[in-house]
Amino acid sequence: MTDTGKEPTAYERELKAAADELHLPESDWTVEQLATQRLMFLVARARWARGDMSNSNDMLQLMDSITALRKQAKLVEPLAITIRSIDSFKCSHCGKITESETSPATPVRLRRKSHPAPFLGRLKPV
């Protein structure tokens, strides 16, 4: 129910759902577009299911349009974030700084080219 005690209209429900999906206010133009197109799709699908409409191209065009709006809002694929942590150590023998990368997938991977493996007892954090 709304603040006025009335049941929300179908458009108001779609507007709220679109705002929640896009994480934008209901007054945003993209939210209004998505809500309108989703409601038009629901109406077209109901008509098609009842046999009132024989052409499904309208529904397919609405689906394409909704997908395009979601792509524009970057909602089709989840955002992938990779976090890398790099620790640096200074060799107490030669002074060379060695970096080791730590990430959830690979706990520790040392990056060395020609420098010999240090004696771990002599490594000091930089």
The fraction of residues in strands falls at 15-25%
Largest sheet: 4 strands, antiparallel
Instruction: Return the domain count.
Output: 2
End-to-end Cα distance: 60 Å
Mean pLDDT: 76
Describe this structure in words.
The protein is α+β, with helices and mostly antiparallel strands and 126 residues long. It folds into two domains: 63 residues, no CATH class; 41 residues, no CATH class. The protein is 40% helix and 15% strand. The protein is built from three helices and four strands. A four-stranded antiparallel sheet has the order 3-2-1-4, with no helix packed on it. Strand 2 and strand 3 form a beta hairpin. The radius of gyration is 28 Å and the shape is elongated. The N and C termini lie far apart (60 Å). About 13% of the residues have low confidence.
List keywords for this structure.
126 residues; alpha+beta; 3 helices; 4 strands
Layout: helices, strands, pairs:
Layout: H1 10-22, H2 29-50, H3 57-72, E1 85-91, E2 97-102, E3 109-111, E4 123-125
Antiparallel strand pairs: 1-2, 1-4, 2-3
Helix pairs in contact: 1-2, 2-3
